[in-house]
Amino acid sequence: MHKYIETALPLAEINDAAIREKAGKRGHPANLHMWWGRSPETSSLAALTAAVMDFTAETSERDLALIAKTVSGDKEALEAIRSSLRERGSLPTVWDAFAGFGGIPIAAQKLGLRVVANDLNPVATMLTRAAADIPARFAGQPPVHPGKLKRTAYSGAQGLAEDVQFYGEWLENQALKLLADAYPQTESGEIPFAWIWVRTVKCPNPACNCHIPLGSSYILSKSKTAQYWAEPVMENGELNFEIHEGECPKDKESNKVSGNGARFRCPACGEITTDEYIKKMGAAHALGAQMLAVVTNTNGKKCFLVPSEIQKAAAEVEMPEEIPPGAIPTNAHWFSPPGFGITEYADLFTPRQMQMLCTFSDLVRKAQDMAASSALAAGMSETSGSLEAGGIGALAYGQAIGIYLAFVVNKMADYNSSMCSWRTAGGNIRSTFGRQAIPMVWTFAEGNPFSSVSGNFKTLLGSVAESVENLGCGSAAVVSQENALSMEHPQNVMICTELPYYRDIGYADLSDFFYIWLRRSLKETYPQMFLSMVTPKEELSTVSTYYGVPKEDAEAKYRADMKMLYEKLYASSTEEYPALLFYCFRKNDLACMKHGGTGSNPSAWEFMLDSLLTAGFRINAVWPMRSEPVSEKADSTRVLIVARKGTDRRGQITRRGFINTLKRELPEKLARLWLGHVQPEDELLSCLGQGLSVFSAYESVLNADGSAMSVHDALQVIYLECEDYIEQRKAAFSENAAESKEE
């Protein structure tokens, strides 16, 4: 029997909810930790719901409205669906081979479905465990800390969250005692909440002894109520800065020379550096950094002060002896710092930042031990074992607290590196990962972890604790860290996963920034997971083209690996429920369908569809599952491919027979599709999915010469039929509207 996911969806409501979710809100699981390409929980929930609900024309209006209410956050609608599923008795196990952040497992748990999830990346695996596995283990557990309880009764992860907050506050107090000398007050007794720095290099002019400030911007604040800027001045051959209030003159905004590369003018002699010179000096570790301004906030008013000797001296701490190891990848596509001699992850942090993060990270283990002792005193099992061994007792509980506190340290690292720039409009700090890369930053901001600045410990702790409190604590989740190509997949399961997008995001390389800190905090909790210095690099989302590997070789490897993956997914999938495969549809894929071509070199989209069919799947639907607002600038659209084991294929048919069948069956399928609410921008892809269901219903479609019709040719035929149908529908709608107006 067809499911709603194969016929009709309240697509507009689903996409609206996913876009709102991406915007972020307090208490959302995404606030536990940063991750790239996170699966929206709302669209995952809708897809899974529609995949288990049987389509019935008589109840379609009611059922589609129920799905729409569920994704909007209606708890009664969700409980109605859960109750309906419980009445079914046997329910499928959901298998997510590329769990990433864990959005799909969380959604499956909300429906009461058992989850098996996996990811090769240890950071992603830890996030999924924290979001889905750990809360389910300790659901309903009251807090164990010795302080005053905040509630009289606890449900879900409320107790877990309260303990995260309690032991996090203890951790902050201990860190403040250890780091007080590194974060002094100003002479007037104010607490600095940020220090602005500029990188420097010795002037290439042999006759000049100046260290040139590499000032990408000297503007400190350009808000309407407070405008400040800094001016470099030379005094006896020494560089200093003066702080001015008011609008910065255009010619004083920066000493960076227009054009490509790192070209800066010396304020003493006028010499201009070359990009090659800066890189050469960087490679020789001859780039420095000088404090440019101290930022305070008194009664909501930001002030920018010339750094005193006390402030300068406080920052001149020794780099800790034991620092997290790990080399930054040299590909400039995601990482530009190595081109300037910043080659180790430790190089991304100032000595004071490194000392601070190491202190917080080391205190995580002490907080974890304290929580375990309190859990034991509260009556939790002493012999249940560790988290890694599946434990649910005192030791595992303490380790769980440690994981969430390690996330806080990781979030602090994101806001406390020398690649954090200063927002002149808002007067706060940008995180390291403003985008999916680590670009070079010349003028950077350092925050005070004990103040109110962005990235301070107190704020980040509260964000993590609030997210823990709102975790679902649903059905059990089994989470593993393995290679999806070589591991043994579970059998007879409903697949729901984000397929790796070719050359999209370098998860493995980017996540090393966070891995090195997780490893320092948690290597005793999960020794096997954190055995290596950096994350595994065998990810399917190919990045090797950015390391000098020929494009043809990289693409051939990706396609061979994906073919193998589709075969494994087919073998593990159940016949009763469709497989849900999220993928990336790009503009050039649509261009191929519109404008034709030989099809001799299929796009990644055509290759994916062909490989699914070759593995044995039928493609029954394609849905645009957006997580970003519609934009002409966007190169791609996230889509959901709905596929089933093709055990009921009809055999062979001729090309003409296929076209006739398409013309006959497509209108009925599209009539069902319009039962849901589909926005105009999503109509074409949704229609194409219904056309593909006709094509894939046959084992093969034969051309006049006896050759098999390719997916490329089929898509062209389907595209023309869908386009024609949509135009006819629009014309009929316009005609009806005109007639109604006349009446």
Give helix % range. 40-55%
The proportion of residues in beta strands is 5-15%
Spatially, the strands of the biggest sheet line up as 13-2-1-14-15-17-16
Poorly predicted tracts of residues: none
End-to-end separation in angstroms reads: 43 Å
The total beta strand count reads 19
CATH superfamily of the domain at 4-139 and 473-499 and 542-731: Vaccinia Virus protein VP39
By secondary-structure content and strand pairing, the structural class works out as alpha/beta
Pfam families: DUF1156
Domain DUF1156: 8-56
Protein name: DUF1156 domain-containing protein
InterPro entries: DUF1156 (IPR009537), SAM-dependent_MTases_sf (IPR029063)
Description:
The chain is α/β, with parallel strands linked by helices. Helices cover 41% and strands 14% of the residues. The protein contains 19 helices and 19 strands. The strands form five sheets. It has a seven-stranded mixed sheet with strand order 13-2-1-14-15-17-16, sandwiched between helices. Strands 3, 4, 8, 9 and 12 form a five-stranded antiparallel sheet that branches. A three-stranded antiparallel sheet has the order 5-6-7, with no helix packed on it. Helix 1 runs antiparallel to helix 2 (41-52), helix 7 crosses helix 11 and helix 17 packs across helix 19. The longest helix has 32 residues, at 711-742.
